[in-house]
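Hi X.,

You mentioned you wanted examples for the new student's onboarding notes, showing what a folding record looks like when two proteins sit in one file. Here is a clean example. The first protein comes first, with its sequence line followed by its structure tokens.
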Amino acid sequence: MDESILVCVYYGPNGERLIRRGGKLANMLDCPFYVLTVDPLPEDEMDIEKIHFIEKWKELAQEHGAEQFIIKYNESRPIAKVIGEVARKNNITQLIIGQTAQSRWKEITKGSFINILLNEIPFVDLHIISVSRELNRDGFFEKGVRAYLKEDHAGYRLCFNHTQSDVYEGIFYKEVGTDFNNGVFKFMVNNCMMEVQVVDDYVRDFEKQTAAPQGSAKE
């Protein structure tokens, strides 16, 4: 039987790693692969954080030769049902999903989800990838918002209004319980997700923080 791979991603910092893993496996097996994400909201209600992830995933999927990037908007059905439908339509034989505590995919850690999924698609080999918890936002960070880094005499300053002098565009996750802009700024460089620490509106030692590739970029 010819192989075909489906990578399932959900909003968070680990989608890039799963897509790279799917691309590598597809290259090894010399077969097509697809990327799927599911959202219960309609497309016109997507917030800026989700739009950011989708844009970057599309770029990465294309870079790694994905046949199609599939988005299921306004989806009220159980995730397993949606995955099963896409898997059957595209003759999927290998399914890649991530095991992480900070997203809806945490259901994967419960046996019931795996059983339901395997009942939906018993013909598919299931790969559950343990992904890094580099940014566990639950309880520690507020919802991400679009932000920019602008270089000045003191370093790279965080700002929320786009100007011609912006150097980097990304998503800022503010620490819960702080009155100042302290947190994590995530952005893309050459299709690799990077993150730097923001302290009182500034990124200190920017070059040092970005000198080594992030773990997800190594996949």
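Then the second protein repeats the pattern, sequence line and then tokens:
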Amino acid sequence: MSPRSASVNEELRRRSRERLLQAAVELVDERGYEATTLGDIADRAGSARGLVSYYFPGKRQLVQSAVHRLMHRTLEEALEREPRSEDGRERMARAVDAILRLALDRPVLMRQHMAGLLQAPEGFVQCPEQQRLGELLRDTVARHGSADPDADYPLLRALLMGAVYAMVLPNAPMPVATLRAELFRRYGLDGELGVPPAPEGTGGTHDRDLSRFFAT
């Protein structure tokens, strides 16, 4: 049997890493961060346990990367959904709504993510998944008309992170409608733009199948 080419090996590594990211999101969403072990993640992914440490320094970094991957794919799907729009205001509205909906549908996962950002000694992990998310948010502010996307993108990121934190704060969550209205006011968006998240109590989308966000 001929040895695998470098490109085939690279593709196999990419798929292996993707499976670990998907497994991490699924398990933290189901059980919470503390109840999820690296061994659990490797088993769910069908990977050898040693592969986890090969790709990630630890559980906190793996979970951060996994959630950033989910956020990136959620945002990408929202921006490219039909009917597609190149209008900067519509794209900004879709971006805001996508992140708010993610927090509404997956409060446990997003609460654990926010706690991890605050508790991790290394802080904010500049992983490839976070960088792709950042590029998409930067493009969003640029299309919205920003004269300085490099300065305005971190502000959008901070505002979205603040809104997510407010939504998932135990015992004192803010209503998604209030946060959406404030973000829309901040960016001069009409309320009919975007795709409003389902009101609390209606069940939202709550689609537990995350596989489409990690499709190869």
